[in-house]
Amino acid sequence: MTARRLALARSGSLIAASPRARFLATAASTSIFPSSDQPTHPALVKPGGPIPGPLSIEASKEIGGFQEDRAHAFVADYARSKGNFIVDADGNVMLDMFAQIASIALGYNHPDLVSLAHSPEFVMAATNRPAIGSFPPAQWASWINDGGIGDEWVKPRGLNQVFTAMCGSCANENAYKAVFMAYRARERGEGVAFTDEEMTSCMKNQEPGSPDLSILSFEKGFHGRLFGSLSTTRSKAVHKVDIPSFDWPAVPWPNIKYPLAEHARENAEAEAATLARVEETIVAWRQKAPVAGLVVEPIASEGGDQHASPSFFRALRELTHKLGVFMIVDEVQTGVGATGRLWAHEAWDLERPADIVTFSKKMQAAGFYHNIETRPSVPYRNYNTWMGDPIRALQARQILRTVRASNLLENVRDVGSHVYSNLESLFAGSAMSNLRGENQGTFIAWDLPSTKGRDDFLVKMRRDHGVHLGGCGDSTVRLRPMLVFEKKHADIFLQAVSEVLKNMK
Amino acid sequence: MTARRLALARSGSLIAASPRARFLATAASTSIFPSSDQPTHPALVKPGGPIPGPLSIEASKEIGGFQEDRAHAFVADYARSKGNFIVDADGNVMLDMFAQIASIALGYNHPDLVSLAHSPEFVMAATNRPAIGSFPPAQWASWINDGGIGDEWVKPRGLNQVFTAMCGSCANENAYKAVFMAYRARERGEGVAFTDEEMTSCMKNQEPGSPDLSILSFEKGFHGRLFGSLSTTRSKAVHKVDIPSFDWPAVPWPNIKYPLAEHARENAEAEAATLARVEETIVAWRQKAPVAGLVVEPIASEGGDQHASPSFFRALRELTHKLGVFMIVDEVQTGVGATGRLWAHEAWDLERPADIVTFSKKMQAAGFYHNIETRPSVPYRNYNTWMGDPIRALQARQILRTVRASNLLENVRDVGSHVYSNLESLFAGSAMSNLRGENQGTFIAWDLPSTKGRDDFLVKMRRDHGVHLGGCGDSTVRLRPMLVFEKKHADIFLQAVSEVLKNMK
């Protein structure tokens, strides 16, 4: 963009705060985002005008010359974005409650991450990318353990190993590989070597070396888009059509009614039916492609924020254990604080830990936690050139340190219940239904009557009020603010919702 | 590591240059690595002593507490590594001709990359990782096109689209997905929508929505380790055993004899036989799982540096086109200059460009080049949260600019022929055989009589001479120096080879 245009783009007009606004914070308060220049409100160049605006569209078009641009919502100016506010190429300042598909923890240009990026250690790590599995940096253990992804405060309870990878899909796929190897190792018996037949047949992609084993997942689950992970993803047909897939099983998500507390008995029945179905499926597939692992999200996010009760997950853990199936908890979207817990599955209070917990997104680093049982028998079996990215491990460490130092989990819990209870009141008698996410921090969602209704709602929130939200499932709005989202930001959001609702009536 | 130990580690002793050394550069020359503190020679703490040394072993052990450490060669001190020289945790200074499994282009701590890492643009990009497919940075087109991976000088001839991803495996898998979608789009006919049956069946991983299509690869090929890419990888059983695989076909690599020029006629026959086999396989699999794409490396690297003639690849291109199969050239290891060309497949002089060229490693950024035919019909089909990494795109741009400004391709060609011709003389009458890589820059390899012989050779080069090399295949030594590897470095390497050879006799 030219300098003239950037200057032009800077003249955004503040959305006027109505004196009668119910939810607008009235006093400037200290912020947990430690920078004075975080905007206080959305500011649109022309409220009600189109987003993307002309400069966004022009920049998208240029990108469209060499790369898919039809999924662009708008083109962003990250240098000007700050904290909870994203600025687009036209200069619109929006409250960002989608946060790069739930992948920003601390807000834009957080001073701690900016400082980190200037540190000699970060510059060195960025400039010299090692093959970590063979030539790790001398600081690797410290980057992981001293407040980082391997810190005692961070590791899911009961898991003491961490495999580092590049993204959420890779995290899940490498976890599946670990599970298949461990499953076969258990069948084979301790210390038993591969047979010649296994070694020969695997080179032809044939049994017994390439065994017909499977991963069981849930309908509406999303676990990534590479060939193994996509075979377990069941959220939307557009992700899957035309792509060859492993013939792996899935069972329907329990037919849950919201709010959970009001439908405890029916939900328990639905969950029991699902558990029975899981058991049947695992038993039946022993004759076909034995289920080595079961993968599940604590909240099926991409598939429309589908919840279930802690007792369901506890029973699932016991069932998988009883049937000799490894349990993989996919915390790519739910992990790192958004539910008010570092890991969403902490809410289940498992007696027996899951076998594997995968992560990515807000962690910036990706990978999975596990135990020694799922470390392969010999080296180079679960291996690749990079084995993760040291600078993302350094960022993860800083993010986790800041989460802890600034009590961001507590903030998420407080703000989450503020949002939830206010939405509950606002939605009474409205077209909004199935509000969910009580006691799940800011991981809150609800449904509209149709896909079109949901999409219209998202457009109005953004275009008229400068609040940027995301959808999921068929007709769901999902809240995915950052961990530095405060009550004052929640009030901006709630005010905007109330105004959009008013105009919907 | 403690400060005391680091200080201890700094006292490496220079390997004495013998006055009779045949290959040692005698005069200090200006370097294409623009920094005065690149070491001039390897320096081992105790020549002949073990590598990994005690501090490396200690650091490995610490990592081993939470992560696989059995594939560690040594733990490295990247802050002290410079140019072509890697320094390990014990202070051993080694000439690095493996370069993080062929993934470092410009040497350690190259001033251009250090400057880049300090730039406000890099800091901003590192701190704010966007979901590029939906909220791209305003600078994205410029980062790609202005000297970057989408620059006219960079894009493989005939391809004008670039898909950005996270690593080599992802690059290949996303390329396979693009191929499957384009193949089905061609079958379906232009503008024809998905059927309800396709949309429903794909959610169950069943035909017709999840079609039984395949990717054809070559035995000894390596294309990554995720579930789709691993199904096309055929280099080593240890990569594949116990992992479920798609039943996809492979054909043997042509039975090539080296040097290529001396066996032109026999090789042409072997290549013709392979081409016939490729055609037979594609035709036969139409009844089983039609071949939508063929993937091939210009030099099958992990599988032992298997070469073939340009005419073979030209014929392969014409054959795949004739049979309606998309041709995917995997340049993850061969790309970005190591063969003396930016892309190894330039040597083929194709009349009709390949459909897809994948990249990663030395580019630091990963992805694939293609044309609009392989852009999916609707958005979100080949999509994920991050869609690549902006800071790796910025590094790729700097690497490519430096390659061009410093004439590194010419350097690689010059040094490569120097190395090749000297090895030819050195190996006459020795146990070294099948020297290959003439006119392939520094992408040179040869065989030893056994795996053990090869491994012993690698140990001697490292432990006695401070030259760090890699192996591939069963008994192959592969040279993978950086693009800043100069004749003076080649002479250190050649001198070391000649001494190891002497002691082998």
Automatic annotation (TrEMBL), chains A, B:
EC main group: transferase
Catalytic activity: 4-aminobutanoate + 2-oxoglutarate = succinate semialdehyde + L-glutamate
Domain of life: Eukaryota
Gene3D superfamilies linked: Aspartate Aminotransferase, domain 1, Type I PLP-dependent aspartate aminotransferase-like (Major domain)
GO biological process: gamma-aminobutyric acid catabolic process
Cofactors demanded by this protein: pyridoxal 5'-phosphate
Annotated GO MF terms: 4-aminobutyrate:2-oxoglutarate transaminase activity; pyridoxal phosphate binding
PROSITE patterns: AA_TRANSFER_CLASS_3
UniProt entry tagged with the keyword Protein biosynthesis: no
UniProt GO cellular component terms: mitochondrion
Presence of keyword Metal-binding: no
Matching CDD domains: OAT_like
EC number(s) on file: 2.6.1.19
Keyword tags: Aminotransferase, Pyridoxal phosphate, Transferase
Record family assignment: Belongs to the class-III pyridoxal-phosphate-dependent aminotransferase family.
Protein name: 4-aminobutyrate aminotransferase
Species per Swiss-Prot/TrEMBL record: Acaromyces ingoldii
